């Protein structure tokens, strides 16, 4: 058994571009769910419009990637307004229903043949991140940190990605520890009380939805730019539930919750993956019981089990406060 | 007690009849109606609330007291009618604008913001906060001084309501009575001209009742107009300057507290029309 290769797989997963993208999206979701109490089950829709904002601008229209980033941000804000203006006037369940539907509707639309001239349909779009890669100041070569090895491209993209995460975390910290943050946390506790104290609850919820959605769009951009490929099926509803898993694992309503949760989630996912493959390769698990193609499904089952244990033994997440958690929210 | 007499004295010459005009009304409501399907929950022709006085709103269960509160404060937007606050039209304003105008309500089921600290609960009540705008909130120097002033004001109120030792606790850990005090203190952070208290004494133990009563009369003496819904008749008799009785959505009687208890319409509303009457009249309940 090669334990170090199992661990390095986990570390690559935790630090890699997919994890970065998901962490950003989970930070956005934390604003919605953790701080404002909005039930957004379609965060993946914001990731999708962000990613395709870049992909379509560059690959379809030949614009600069930076224009694409702006387009993606704008698209996420518009999506938040379209969803929020009607649904945030209603009880919170309606937002949950409309966001989960919006995510699927958008994914199916982007992969449809009608949209193919724009989005590439089921083939997706490729090679739209060159503007960022061309800026790479890291000299080519392989960079080794202990057992880990990164290409110059990885080093550059990971620095940009984690740098972006750091900026967003600082922004969220400042927002939450301000009177604005106090109002949105009050809305999470009790909308009517906030309203009775003269707060325009609807406007705050809309701001929160837009802000978290835009951060989600940045997340979508980060990992599609790294892969240089945007494909609609990378944005299925399960992504949102991964984000919730990360959030609950780290602690919802904590600034670092989604970051820690994301790191851990991806470390566990990929090291478990490597562990199973290792077991199969060394013959501990015979092929009659498990073949490599089952690993993907099995690691999802593990995520489910992990969540169950978490709910049973630490419902507040790693960074959460148990005393705060058990207070009745009435 | 001399101030008490001021508010009562101002109302001394007012006739004890439903919809009567007051010498100095802060709130004037006309034709306020709210129905749920065929049920007319509120149907008030005319009601005036005297400035600087404590007005109690009483009535049997289902009389429409809370519904009237909800309509007047903008929490129930399904009602109709016209009402003016300080002479300015207030009908159909959304709840947060009503609060900005200076009419602040509390709730029958106390709404403590559980996972905010007691201090944060109070800070939230302050209006016109620069740091509550999303973009300004990330630039701390824009609101730091204002925040300090708000904390000072909050601390003074916490001391007044003897909640200062709980300042940094989560509001969710407070007892029922403490929550009532917190809600009142929080409402005062808005600096209201009129307080609408929905059953301020519900679920409060007798020791705290007395201090809550004193707080309410003190507020009146400082010039705040107060209107409350209450079932506790001792409180109604003990604190209010004027009593309005609602039944089946309508104002059926008004008057000073001493007179209201003997008002036949009020007795009818609470006890049913047959009490003491010869059984020949009507047999429906």
Tell me about this structure:
Chain A has helices spanning 3-15, 17-36, 43-60, 65-87, 92-110, 116-119, 130-134, 152-176, 179-189, 191-196, 201-227, 238-250, 257-281, 295-313, 322-326; strands spanning 125-126, 142-145, 148-151, 229-230. Chain A is mainly alpha-helical and 330 residues long. In chain A, helix 2 packs across helix 9 (179-189), helix 3 packs antiparallel against helix 4 (65-87) and helix 12 (238-250) crosses helix 13 (257-281). The longest helix of chain A has 27 residues, at 201-227. The model of chain A has no long low-confidence stretch (mean pLDDT 92). Chain B has helices spanning 2-10, 65-72, 95-101, 118-125, 134-137, 144-160, 176-189, 206-221, 233-239, 257-260, 264-271, and strands spanning 25-36, 39-50, 54-58, 80-85, 88-89, 103-105, 194-198, 225-229, 242-247, 250-255. Chain B has two domains: 3-110 and 175-181 and 190-273, P-loop containing nucleotide triphosphate hydrolases (Rossmann fold, 3-Layer(aba) Sandwich); 113-173, no CATH class. The chains are: A mainly alpha (330), B alpha/beta (285). The interface between A and B is large, with 32 and 43 residues.
Q: What is the global morphology of chain B? A: globular
In the CATH scheme, the class of the largest domain in chain B would be Alpha Beta
CA(first)-CA(last) distance of chain B: 44 Å
Radius of gyration of chain B: 20 Å
- Helix fraction of chain A, binned, reads over 70%
Radius of gyration of chain A: 20 Å
Total domains of chain A, how many? 1
Q: What separation lies between the terminal Cα atoms of chain A?
A: 53 Å
GO cellular component, one term (chain A): plasma membrane
Main location (chain A): membrane
Keywords (chain A): Cell membrane, Membrane, Transmembrane, Transmembrane helix
GO molecular function (chain A): branched-chain amino acid transmembrane transporter activity
């Amino acid at each position: 058994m090669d334990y170090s290769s199992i661990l390095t797989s986990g570390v690559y997963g935790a630090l890699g571009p997919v994890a970065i993208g998901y962490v950003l999206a989970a930070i956005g979701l934390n604003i919605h769910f953790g701080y404002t109490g909005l039930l957004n089950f379609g965060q993946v829709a914001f990731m999708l419009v962000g990613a395709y904002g870049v992909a379509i601008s560059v690959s379809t229209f030949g614009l600069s990637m930076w224009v694409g980033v702006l387009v993606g941000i704008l698209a996420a804000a518009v999506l938040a307004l379209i969803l929020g203006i009607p649904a945030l006037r209603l009880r919170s369940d309606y937002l949950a229903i409309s966001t989960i539907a919006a995510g699927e509707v958008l994914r199916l639309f982007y992969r449809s043949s009608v949209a193919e001239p724009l989005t590439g349909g089921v083939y997706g779009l490729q090679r739209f991140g060159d503007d960022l890669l061309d800026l790479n100041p890291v000299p080519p070569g392989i960079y080794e940190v202990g057992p880990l090895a990164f290409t110059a491209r990885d080093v550059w993209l990971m620095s940009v990605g984690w740098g972006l995460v750091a900026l967003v975390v600082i922004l969220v910290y400042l927002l939450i520890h301000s009177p604005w943050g106090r109002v949105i946390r009050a809305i999470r506790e009790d909308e009517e009380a906030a309203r009775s104290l003269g707060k325009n609850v609807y406007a705050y919820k809309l701001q929160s939805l837009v802000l978290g959605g835009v951060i989600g769009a940045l997340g979508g951009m980060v990992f599609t730019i790294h892969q240089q490929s945007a494909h609609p099926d990378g944005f299925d509803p399960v992504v949102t539930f991964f984000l919730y898993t990360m959030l609950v694992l780290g602690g919802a309503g904590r600034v670092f919750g989604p970051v820690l949760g994301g790191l851990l989630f991806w470390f566990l996912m990929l090291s478990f993956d490597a562990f199973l493959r290792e077991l199969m390769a060394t013959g501990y698990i015979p092929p009659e019981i498990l073949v490599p193609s089952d690993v993907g499904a099995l690691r999802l089952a593990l995520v489910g089990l992990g969540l169950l244990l978490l709910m049973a033994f630490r419902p507040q997440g790693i960074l959460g406060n148990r005393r705060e958690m058990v207070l009745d929210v009435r | 007690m001399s101030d008490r007499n001021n508010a009562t004295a101002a109302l001394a010459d007012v006739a004890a009849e439903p919809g009567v005009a007051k010498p100095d009304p802060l709130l004037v409501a006309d034709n306020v109606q709210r129905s749920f399907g065929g049920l007319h929950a509120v149907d008030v022709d005319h009601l005036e609330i005297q400035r600087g006085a404590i007005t109690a709103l009483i009535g049997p269960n289902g009389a429409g007291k809370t519904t009237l509160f909800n309509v007047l404060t903008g929490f129930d937007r399904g009602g109709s009618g016209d009402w003016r606050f300080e002479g300015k039209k207030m009908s159909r304003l959304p709840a947060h604008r009503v609060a900005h105008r200076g009419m602040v309500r509390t709730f029958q089921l106390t709404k403590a913001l559980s996972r905010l600290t007691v201090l944060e609960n109070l800070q939230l009540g302050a209006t016109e906060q620069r740091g509550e705008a999303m973009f300004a909130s990330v630039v701390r120097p824009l609101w730091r001084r204002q925040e300090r002033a708000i904390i000072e004001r909050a601390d003074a109120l916490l001391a007044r309501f003897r909640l200062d030792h709980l300042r940094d606790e989560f509001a969710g850990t407070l007892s029922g009575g403490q929550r009532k005090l917190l809600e009142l203190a929080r409402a005062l952070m808005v600096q209201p001209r009129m307080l609408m208290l929905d059953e301020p004494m519900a679920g409060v133990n007798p020791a705290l009742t007395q201090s809550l009563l004193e707080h309410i009369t003190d507020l009146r003496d400082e010039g705040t107009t107060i209107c409350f819904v209450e079932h506790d008749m001792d409180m109604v008799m003990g604190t209010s300057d004027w009593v309005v009785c609602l039944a089946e959505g309508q104002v059926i009687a008004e008057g000073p507290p001493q007179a209201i208890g003997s008002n036949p319409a009020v007795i009818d509303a609470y006890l049913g029309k047959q009490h003491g009457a010869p059984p020949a009249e009507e047999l429906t309940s």
